[in-house]
Hints:
The structure holds 2 protein chains of 2 kinds. The two termini of chain A are 48 Å apart. Chain A is mainly beta. Chain A has a 4-stranded antiparallel β-sheet, with no helix packed on it. In chain A, strands 6-7-8-9 form a 4-stranded antiparallel β-sheet, with no helix packed on it. A 4-stranded antiparallel β-sheet of chain A has the order 10-11-12-13, with no helix packed on it. Chain A contains 4 helices and 53 strands. Chain A is 4% helix and 47% strand. Chain B is mainly beta. Helix content of chain B is 4%, strand content 49%. Chain B has 3 helices and 62 strands. Chain B has a 5-stranded mixed β-sheet with strand order 6-7-8-9-13, with no helix packed on it. A 4-stranded antiparallel β-sheet of chain B has the order 1-57-56-55, with no helix packed on it. Chain B is elongated, with a radius of gyration of 29 Å. At the A-B interface, β22 and β23 of A face β22 of B. Chain B: Its main location: nucleus. Chain B: It is found in: Nucleus, Nucleolus.
Amino acid sequence: MGEFKVHRVRFFNYVPSGIRCVAYNNQSNRLAVSRTDGTVEIYNLSANYFQEKFFPGHESRATEALCWAKGQRLFSAGLNGEIIEYDLQALNIKYAMDAFGGPIWSMAASPSGSQLLVGCEDGSVKLFQITPGKIQFERNFDRQKRSAIHKMLVDRQYMGVSKRKCIIWGVAFLSDGTVISVDSAGKVQFWDSATGTLVKNHLIANADVQSIAVSDQEDSFVVGTAEGTVFHFQLVSVTSNSSEKQWVRTKPFQHHTHDVRAVAHSPTALISGGTDTHLVIRPLMEKVEVKNYDAALRKITFPHRRLISCSKKKQLLLFQFAHHLELWQLGSTVATGKNGDTLPLSKDADHLLHLKTKGPENIICSCISPCGSWIAYSTASRFFLYRLSYERDNISLQRVSKMPAFLRSALQILFSEDSAKLFVASNQGSLHIIRLLEGSFKHLHTFQPQSGTVESMCLLAVSPDGNWLAASGTSAGVHVYNVKNLKLHCTVPAYNFPVTALAIAPSTNNLVIAHSDQQVFEYSIPDKQYTEWSRTIQKQGFHHLWLQRDTPITHISFHLKRPMHILLHDAYMFCIIDKSLPLPNDKTLLYNPLPPKNESDVIRRRTAHAFKISKIYKPLLFMDLLDERTLVAVERPLDDIIAQLPPPIKKKKFGT
Amino acid sequence: MVEQERVRVVRCGGSELNFRRAVFSADSKYIFCVSGDFVKVYSTATEECVHILQGHRNLVTGIQLNPNNHLQLYSCSFDGTIKLWDYVDGILIKTFIVGHKLHALFTVARAEDSVFVTINKEKPDIFQLVSVKLPKSSSQEIESKELSFVLDYINQSPKYIAFGNEGEYVAAVRDFYLSVYFFKKKTTSRFTLSSSRNKKHAKNNFTCVACHPKEDCIATGHKDGKIRLWRNFDDDKKYTYTCLHWHHDMVMDLAFSVTGTSLLSGGRESVLVEWRDAAEKNKEFLPRLGATIEHISVSPAGDLFCTSHSDNKIIVIHRNLEASAVIQGLVKDSNIFTGLMIDPRTKALVLNGKPGHLQFYSLQSDKQLYNLDIVQQEYINDYGLIQIELTKAAFGCYGNWLATVEQRQEKETELELQMKLWMYNKKTQGFVLNTKVNMPHEDHITALCFCNAEKSENPTLVTASKDGHFKVWILTDDSDIYKKAVGWTCDFVGSYHKYQATNCCFSEDGSLLAVSFEEIVTIWDSETWELKCTFCQRAGKIRHLCFGRLTCSKYLLGATENGILCCWNLLSCALEWSAKLNVRVMEPDLNSENIAAISHSSMGSDLFVFKPSEPRPLYIQKNISREEVQWGVFVPRDVPESFTSEAYQWLNRSQFYFLTKSQSLLTLSTKSPEEKLTPTSKQVFLGWSNCPDKILVSSCLKDVGLAASVLRSTLCEVELPSAVTVKTLPPSSPPLHIAVQSRDALLFCSPRNLLAALCWGWERDLGI
């Protein structure tokens, strides 16, 4: 393993948006998460909690409610008064429909999935019929028209001090007629809906209780508070031989620092998200059958896709934010030092460009060409291509106009190694190849999706010689196209878990595929089969610690001079796989730090195995090889994110 | 009779009241607690000991009410028996011989004829919970060897075991796991907490367990101060728990109220916490209970709680969290620096009590009489904090004066010393601070003694210190024109060749003062403070020094560190005799010439009693204790004994008490002292008023005959027997009334009705 000079980049000032709603779909075991900027993300809980789909946000579309209906249909509603249905195959918005009641604050689907109920700002509740293609307005319940059957008055007293207002933040209606309410005074109250009386009162927090979610069996529920605590309530029998049951507050979980705005209850886990931008999945140990990595607590902070692209030649980094792009020139140094030294910069990193998008839509994807002279990005409705030219210290940007009509929205953009071609995966499932010329472009070809599928491709990889293009969707296998004769070359056999990263090795043209279950395959494109090394590692199996990592591999690259090396990283580690060394078995130490220098070569060789792992850089958002001896690592420390969030509710800590 | 006169070492009172949870009677009138080999029955209203249930021949380890007859009490002991008592009359009903050493006792209403005990088999640290079938039989002693095994590998203390839901299941905790055994299903579920070494879970150890009386809910206390409420524990997978966290240190004990609506917890913070409805936000506190709460128990009627504390105290607490009574035994948890002393006035044993306090403990009634705060500073209980320690104390002038020395040393060079002199105030019946001397010496004070001679008109105190000086302090007028105020000043400073002064002692008549300077003993004239003579034996530093008394007053005894006991003749100024004896304790008897010396070797401690006039000991008792004896004292007897045997005659006028390193207070007796000294079952408290501001209360009347004689003698104004102690009523109480107290009723009568009232009280107590 060679030594590298590492650019340790910490100026990627990325702050994820806070989580506003979460909705769990029991049928497909998927979780929909909406953020305050309107982004909706879909996590596949069966596939190691991989974020498989996302819908870009929109400035005016702040979601306030999210729900699944009829198993596969996802609806959201927000402050612009629209109900939106998402197309989960094509990854775009199917339609948006105004409810005509002002901002929508809440939404619920009937258990059968045939009706949708929204609560609007004007106090009305509107009922919609869900038809196969659309939704249809059915009825309006105005708050004046019908008299309430029961009025449950919430006690405003809070620890003896009466607050001005007590807001009910959430209710749950159980099938036995119990109503559970959570309110701003920190109470969880149980009501009898038949008589409208308070049955039980739990004071659980000094701050607001903001969210509630009940399990499908109605034997447990979860509430989230503004102090960042999540409480679990369970229905337990009073004595073992009586049928009488009572709700008991059981475990508190403190995984958040800020308000828990949304909670969900899957059969095996409690899911919570809030202002502090983490999505926390806390498994319920009693419900987990086998003790595998599903039984571990997960904290998802960063998107499972690439936000950074890099121009190796010019040492440029392109950072993608929700509404702008930033182009940075890496710093440089003339100093040299020993292994582990921090070198002083002779030239600081330079912020070259700040490119704001037009319109309210969020950026979906972006890319900078390897030569550094092209930048492309796409929003949900428009595709932008820019030509950069450098004149000494000045930099000029020129938008390439007259984009063809079919290039409206891209899910993934990739430049070829020589920056002469641009590959665009559009949300219709097609792949466009565009030849870039000085200041203009030419559409070369479009690979249409396989007949019968409409699935969009969201991962692309091109071979360094530019002959092969690999593309993967969210579930089906990886397609390899021959760029020269513009034909589908082959399809890698489908695997159960979605692909998280793709790359084609130089010279050998081996396609390396990382899946969300942490498996890594190597597939020889010319031979149309898995390589010998890949078969060996599949036969022997990966190290158990490797399989227990909980973030997916988001980037794969190769060393030009060392064909046996594969460089890959996830959020918490950077790994170089040396295919020439023996594979580790479960008894060997997977994370062995660099062996001490003074040990003999024999010991070093004996302890060496194929996986060289470094955990110095974390959370690691991007890592790539600039040249043979230089690496660039982009980190985003969690403390920096927390520092940019609003201050949390102050709590007294014992002993301070 | 001669066989009975064998002297043996007996434990005498001062036993722990906090060894196990106290138990309330069904009507909350009485509280039972184990105390050494006995079970004591106290009245919750008056704090008085009503009965002592004796019969066990070893430590009593558990008591429980008989669930089928709430006027009966079961007790178990290390002697392998379970005894059933009628506690109202203090009668032993039955003895069940189990045979194993029993560590804890549990009763369950459902299991009518069996109880549960903890025994250990084979390995010393592995205990088993077994159920014992108690056979029905009319005989007094019944063999009950029918044991059936319930749970294995449990903890010894009953705090770690609890029965729930009327005996449906039993919960036991140990280390990091909770085991629940279900009697119906005959299955055991086990729940383990994480015990990994990381900081978060390192203190997850279970410390106590309690079961909800109505619901299937188990409360467990933990070392990190958390309380967990377990539910659904009949399912190995679906079990769940709630955490309650207020204690910052280990939870020592837990108890549910009778209805189960509230949970009580206590620990090192000395605060009783009441958790209402098992909610974290709904709790009440009873703070400042003085010492670590060791046990909590709840009365079956639900109106009272009680907490047992580490300073050997039981506090009875009302349902509304108000302390209503305190039962205080001998405080034992601090180091004894002052040694054992006898207060000449009350004949109470005086020694270190709570930190910074001097306790006055009545050997007769086995309870603390009085607690004198010497340091007079707030005590902060924190690990590693260096506290002010009370190191020396001495009584002088028949209990009129008390001298105390306290010290605090944080670093080698920073010594804080303070000597306080306290005067007895007859009006308040207590000691009042008279003089405070800051830094009386430059270094540690090694000895302190008053001149107790009868003729001496002026109280004199001598202090010896490591700084090489001894100082004589006398009482003088304290610059007051009315000459009413008095204070102590230093009168003389003596030294001898810059040696460290290690001991000092006055002769019986007060004419001579002996001060030892390391290896050398110096004799000083107490009138002129002239050095009269010196003795040196070159046998190591002098550890103990004392003058002979009465006929042997011409002798001076010294014990050295090298294990030599020397006796010098003061008339001839020569060594009379010496013996090789590694003396740890040397105590003179104030009523005779006898001197008791206790030596220590690896085999144990041996007692020697001798007269200074002859080197041959009067009495030798080998191996009085396996461990080192730290302190001893002769206590004058109220009623002289009449031992005929020559060897025991030294015990006729005084009794010898000694304290071992593990703080057990022992004495030598032919019978158990509690039997003799403590009030009997027919206890009569008599009182009368013969002058307007005094009331005489007699206690400890052994039998009716004595009570009658006291009555008669009182009426004839004959001198009272010493068993009657005089107490002054507080000024507010009606002076012309007398108090007649019988068991738990207190009556006031006017002197006119005196005789009638006394007779009434007497008759009632006789049960006529």
